[in-house]
Amino acid sequence: MKLPETQTILLTRDNGVLHVTLNRPEARNAMSLAMVEELMATFEAVESDAGVRALVLRGSGGHFCAGGDIKDMAGARQKAAEGDREAFFRLNRRFGEMITRANRLPAVLITVLEGAVMGGGFGLACVSDVALAAGDARFALPETGLGVIPAQIAPFVVQRLGLTQARRLALTGARFDGHRALALGLVHEVADSAEELDKKLAELLTQVRRCAPGANRATKALVLDVDQVPMAELLDRAAREFADAVNGDEGQEGTLAFVQKRAPSWAGDRD
Question: InterPro entries from the entry (predicted)?
Answer without folding.
Answer: ClpP/crotonase-like_dom_sf, Enoyl-CoA_hydra/iso, Enoyl-CoA_hydra_C, Enoyl-CoA_Hydratase/Isomerase
